[in-house]
């Protein structure tokens, strides 16, 4: 089976300060992978570097055994909610419709079929009734579901979600994780920056554990061990359980 992603010797720095040091891992297609680590560990930085959203100082990254630039249209990215301008005047349906644009090509406008597909994606996350609502009027959980619908509209093979469960209601979290599991069963590969240690074993099959450098990458039962967690968090595991967030 081809590897979904290969990262080898990744180094990232900001203004001369190293944020990620010699990070390497690989995962197969059809994996649901959590990216775990304490506050400031570089979790979001790792995701952005893998996606080419920020430069890296060294290392090699391939997705689907191909360079990023050759496969970018097959990747869906859901950023942190704090990085989105929720005051931008756009309705829910049009937000999801943006997910069809990468495959439409330059100067091509969405057709009837694209609009129907966008509505179908909203239905998959239970948000079809809000199609004509302004995105800024929704709750945090509803907004996150809409952005997942936008990712679904891309018909992507690889999904990258940065802290999708932060600041949302329990119902929305359940909808999102169930949808991610469904995507995984259909052969999609999903990376999720995560912070709630109590749900790691229920949510993910594989983990990437980092704090500037890699402390483990592989099946949850191998990585999510007290020794690894204490090294990554720099404190007893019981204390680390209340921490999270990322850079």
TrEMBL record:
Domain ABC transporter: 5-236
Alphabetical list of SMART domains matching this protein: AAA
GO molecular function, one term: ATP hydrolysis activity
Keyword Transport attributed: yes
Keyword Magnesium attributed: no
Sorted UniProt keywords: ATP-binding, Nucleotide-binding, Transport
Family: Belongs to the ABC transporter superfamily.
Protein name: Metal ABC transporter ATP-binding protein
Organism for this UniProt entry: Lentibacillus cibarius
Lineage: Bacteria, Bacillati, Bacillota, Bacilli, Bacillales
